[in-house]
Design goal:
mainly alpha, 85% helix, 15 helices, MATE family efflux transporter, 429 residues
């Protein structure tokens, strides 16, 4: 699963690196779309967390028929919800981008990328719901393999559609989004073919199951979606602050965001693969296994992220040179990498605690922790740092905010794990 996440996030980083070769303006245009892309991802991840938790609990309790009904419900409802959200974001895109700090003359360039990107976001959400279904049944191999396949397809199509071949000059910035559309379409075809051979879906009793599962689904999905929607809101506020510093800074911030997601590959893989196992233990009442899984996951996250962050911080000038050809963007990106990447060890702890909370029956605590990470620690530190020392202060402030959030999350989880096993159910909300 980690290899799949690495490939998926890696192609997004390379995607931005290709766009950076088009110039600062196209890269900045793409960067302005990130918060809205994160908004769509937040909704889909929140729904995916809920359905993976419910299906894994049903399987853990031996309720096979109910697990099949739940699988059908998520595929139907998820695709419709994300399609409606994409239509709304397409309709109101101009005022949103202007509020984020984009200049009016940049809207045409942003729109040329955003319109096909919305289609790719919907296709990606459909893929994600399929991945969630496989993960809930304990199969993380196929999602990982498909992530690699779609990433390789995207990487092959990117240079062809962006820069062209032979006498054809390519599509420029929109070509990056269209390449993703084609890659995700390939993934959906393979996923649908593999689902046909599984007895994981059922059309019988869907209305009754919807009435039965609506409340527990909302109890998990509601807080989970709110938790997942807070990062896009924070990203909008953060990029508004960065936009005040200049176009090159926006471009550097966009590349740093892509690098952030790639560097967090192990954490992201764990937040996707760990909850179904925790959900099964929750359904079976095996709290000893829950304790063991969480301690192991936290140890891996801290050691891996700290080592990776320090290596990338030392290599920040070369990393920036590999990702951008603009000297100003390279300098700003090196500063962001140097200060922010090591702090992702603490950020990973917080992300893991939030993900575990949704699977173990304390979603409200997870939601509060997610809100505190962004709006109590991260954004205030970022704003103060930006006000005091520009981009360097912004990077230092973001790093301090991540560390404080990680310490707070560790304190919350330690209090839960130190409780007697028989009292763990008291944390269920």
């Amino acid at each position: 699963m980690a290899i799949g996440v690495l490939s998926l996030l890696g192609f997004q980083l390379v995607d931005s690196a290709f766009i950076a070769r088009l110039g600062t303006a196209p890269l900045a245009a793409q960067s302005f779309t990130f918060p809205l892309s994160f908004l769509i991802i937040g909704i889909q991840v929140g729904m995916g967390i809920a359905i993976a938790a419910l299906i894994s609990r049903a399987l853990g309790a031996g309720e096979q028929a109910r697990a099949r009904r739940l699988g059908s419900l998520v595929l139907l409802s998820g695709t419709v919800v994300i399609a409606l959200l994409a239509l709304v974001l397409w309709w109101i895109q101009a005022p949103i981008f202007l509020r984020l700090g984009a200049k009016p003359e940049s809207l045409t360039l942003i729109r040329s990328y955003w319109n096909p990107q919305l289609l790719s976001a919907w296709l990606g959400a459909c893929l994600y719901f399929g991945y969630s279904l496989f993960r809930a049944h304990g199969n993380t191999r196929l999602p990982g393999v498909l992530m690699v396949v779609t990433s390789l397809a995207n990487l092959a199509l990117d240079p062809l559609l962006i820069f062209g071949v032979g006498s054809w000059s390519g599509l420029g910035l929109p070509g990056a989004a269209i390449a993703t559309v084609l890659a995700f379409t390939l993934g959906l075809v393979v996923l649908g073919w593999r689902l046909m051979g599984k007895d994981w879906l059922s059309s019988r009793g869907l209305m009754g199951e919807m009435r039965l599962s609506l409340r527990p689904f909302a109890g998990i999905a509601g807080p989970a979606m709110i938790s997942q929607l807070m990062p896009p809101l924070a990203a909008m506020l953060a990029i508004s602050a960065v936009a005040n510093l200049g176009e090159a800074q926006v471009a550097a911030w966009g590349l740093a965001n892509r690098l952030e997601t790639v560097s967090l590959m192990v954490v992201l893989a764990m937040t996707m693969s760990l909850p179904p196992w925790l959900g099964r233990c929750y359904g079976a009442g095996d709290w000893a296994q829950v304790h063991q899984l969480l301690r192991l996951a936290l140890r891996v996250v801290v050691i891996w992220q700290l080592a990776l962050g320090l290596v990338l911080a030392v290599a920040s000038p070369w990393v920036a040179q590999a990702l951008s050809g603009n000297p100003e963007v390279r300098g700003d990106l090196a500063v962001l990498v140097r200060f922010m990447l090591p702090s992702y060890a603490a950020l990973g702890v917080c992300m893991l605690v939030v993900s575990a909370g949704n699977a173990l029956g304390w979603p409200l605590r997870a939601m509060v922790m997610s809100a505190a990470r962004l709006f109590v620690f991260y954004l205030p530190c970022l704003w103060v740092g930006s006000w005091l020392a520009g981009l360097t202060g912004l990077a230092m402030g973001a790093a301090v905010g991540n560390v404080l959030a990680g310490l707070a999350a560790w304190g919350l989880l330690r209090r839960v794990l130190s409780s007697p096993r028989r009292r763990m159910a008291e944390y269920s909300e």
